[in-house]
Amino acid sequence: MSVADLFLAGETGFWIDPSDMSTMFQDAAGTVPVTAPGQSVGRILDKSGRGAHLTQATSAARPTLMQDANGCNHLYFDGIDDSLSGTVPGMGGNGSKTLLVGARRTASASADQVLFVAGTLAGTGSIFALSGPVANPKIVQWGGGADIQAWSGPGLGEYAVIAALKNGSELAIRVNGGTFAGPATVTAAAMTSSQVMVGAGPYGVRFVGSIYGMIFRTAVTSGTALADAEAYMAAQVQPSRIAVRSGGVWVPKPVKMYSAAGWVHKPVRRYDGTKWVTL
Amino acid sequence: MRITAACPDAMAPEANALAAVIGRSDADDMTYSEPNFADTQGNVYRVASFVAAPEWVASLMGAKASGAVLARPAWDTAGQIDMAAAVRALGWLAVGPGGADPGRIQAVIHDDPQAALEMLGVTAIERTY
């Protein structure tokens, strides 16, 4: 199942993919394309087909497109003022939600680092949020005071695929394909806002590091669909390796093949949501 | 290069006016949007960090050194920017090594924003979300 398939039934949400250069612009209006790493990203298009594009109008607060040693594009958030925001219609109420993100924290912080917030962004109200990965990351459904927290990783500099899942009144966190925390039943007030924010929370708590991709949908994701989405995101954060299941979690594994020249690294292909591409 | 600037909370209106002058739209008037960092003495700052071309920095500091008149940007056809405030901010701006100071807008150049914060001697004000 591809990422695009997650939205075929009309689910609202968004899917951002920094590896797709055609989706990024330096300005919020979308008139100046991003052409190379090192440039600020003021607008990144939603690939889900729902039109929930994310923007940042203030020049200094835009994340930067970067490319790591694996040749992997990511949005770098400086932890000072960077964030992207947008609107996801139909997100209100207290329905199920799925957030999947490939991330790498690059600086420690004593406080939480907010990767994603959906819902009321100012004042009081219900939110659905994922903070971390830091020492105390958690998934939160606020408005009823409920959250799940308690994990010891991923650590500084580690690549992580994190899934924050809300299935009805149950919250759960998965890290690298394995259950990390939950499910736990929570009682929360209904969300009344359709705003979303990436890389920061509404009160200035910011993420320091890289986001390699993010999928948010207002529906339960489980079973094969969730595993496939996690594998896709694992390839986003480390495309030079293949993610395999080992001990109940997704781990990167280098692949070699024998040729006339001896053992060589096998060309790696990655599914970009519409087609397989050789890296 | 990356610029990280610590603006004393009281200087935010002027600093935002300067940010708008050198920015691309009225949204840049929100560059120093929140008092989000503090030094060890408890002074509160609004910190912004962004990537800029070396020529851009040289041009800005050249304008400061020469006392050149700041030009209202072409996009500000409605005259929203307080140009006098922007000029005051330029006078308070210092670019180079140095810690955050309640008496100036201190900008440091470092590719790692976290290292820049250390140079400025400020830490994030802890909040929830």
What this model shows, in words?
The complex is a heterodimer of chains A (279) and B (129). With 279 residues, chain A is mostly beta strands. Chain A has 1 helix and 23 strands. Chain A has one helix at 223-237; strands at residues 13-16, 24-25, 43-44, 54-55, 64-67, 73-78, 84-87, 97-105, 114-119, 127-131, 138-141, 146-149, 159-167, 170-175, 178-185, 195-198, 208-217, 242-246, 249-253, 256-259, 262-265, 269-271, 276-278. In chain A, strands 1, 5, 6, 8, 13, 14, 15 and 17 form an 8-stranded antiparallel beta sheet that branches. In chain A, a hairpin with a 5-residue loop joins strand 5 (64-67) and strand 6 (73-78). Chain A starts with 12 loop residues before the first strand and ends with a strand. The mean pLDDT of chain A is 78. Chain B has 129 residues and is α+β, with helices and mostly antiparallel strands. Chain B has 4 helices and 6 strands; from the N terminus they run E-H-E-E-H-H-E-E-H-E. Chain B has helices at 12-22, 54-66, 83-92, 113-120, and strands spanning 2-8, 37-39, 44-51, 93-95, 105-109, 122-124. Chain B has a 6-stranded mixed beta sheet. In chain B, strand 2 and strand 3 form a beta hairpin. In chain B, helix 1 crosses helix 3. The longest helix of chain B is centred in the middle third of the chain and has 13 residues, at 54-66. Chain B is globular. The mean pLDDT of chain B is 91. The A-B interface holds A 27-28, 38-40, 57-62, 64, 78-82, 107, 109-112, 114, 117, 127, 129, 131, 140, 142, 201-206, 208 and B 2, 4, 19, 23-25, 27-28, 30-31, 33-34, 36, 47-51, 113-114, 117, 124-129.
